[in-house]
Design a protein that fits this description.
- This protein is mainly β.
- It has one domain: Porin.
- The protein is 2% helix and 70% strand.
- It starts with a helix and ends with a strand.
Length: 234
């Protein structure tokens, strides 16, 4: 009985160490997607009370480059730039201001520069959910769609800046490859445009609007600093 009471206490085994996937390093990739939005267009001064707002939609394709600058356990912080070609269009007639006339709004370049904060899910952290926010830019163009001689104006183009927010996820495929899917919302500031008829009778509009984008893409990540797996004890 005394021998049994003198047994040494048994220590609990140490907590297992889980090796997390490392997202650290820089990457480059490509994406395709779809965009849609609302072009807010107001006559200045608004003497007619007519709504010239119109919808626009179309496809996008481009590339991204970024760096995951810091990883602490499952938290990942980085920066990312995206830019690409777009074919997002919407039409709006001027009726009844100028019968038989109108314009087409186009976005042919779209991009963003944003900070990205992510959290790695799963047993080894190979699924990264993230949010992002920063600056957005887009090349806006207005094209005359009126048959002559209804109106007489040149196409009007400008590079417009605004802000954006977004969210998405990225899935590691093994080695340095990953796939991603994300949603972005961008809002662009107002500016004035002028359309003139033959005889120099002109009408002024204030235009602005927002843009939704959904994209899927593929990334290749370079090793670089901090590229070793991250150990986490549970």
């Amino acid at each position: 009985m005394m021998a049994a009471d003198m047994r040494m206490p048994v220590k609990a085994p140490p907590a297992p160490v889980v090796t997390l996937y490392s997202w650290a390093g820089c990457y480059i990739g490509g994406h395709v997607g779809f965009g849609w939005g609302r072009r807010e267009t107001t006559l200045v001064p608004d003497t007619l009370g007519i709504d010239f707002d119109h919808d626009a939609d179309g496809v996008v394709a481009g590339g991204q480059i970024g760096c995951n600058l810091w990883q602490n356990d499952r938290w990942v912080f980085g920066i990312e730039g995206q830019a690409g070609w777009a074919d997002i269009e919407g039409d709006r007639p001027f009726d009844p201001v100028i019968v038989g006339s109108g314009f087409r709004s186009e976005i042919d370049i779209v991009g963003s520069i944003a900070a990205r904060l992510g959290y790695a899910f799963g047993a080894t952290g190979q699924t990264l959910g993230y949010i992002k926010g920063g600056a957005a830019f887009a090349s806006h163009k207005f094209v005359n769609t009126s048959p002559p001689p209804a109106v007489n104006f040149e196409s009007d183009r400008d590079l417009r800046w605004g802000w954006m927010v977004g969210a998405g996820f990225e899935q590691a495929l093994g080695s340095n490859w990953s796939v991603k899917a994300e949603y972005n919302f961008s809002h662009f500031g107002d500016r004035d445009i002028t359309f003139c008829t033959v005889g120099a009778a002109c009408v002024n509009f204030e235009t602005g609007g927002h843009l939704h984008l959904v994209k899927v893409g593929l990334n290749y990540r370079f090793g670089g600093w901090g590229g070793a797996p991250v150990a986490a004890r549970y």
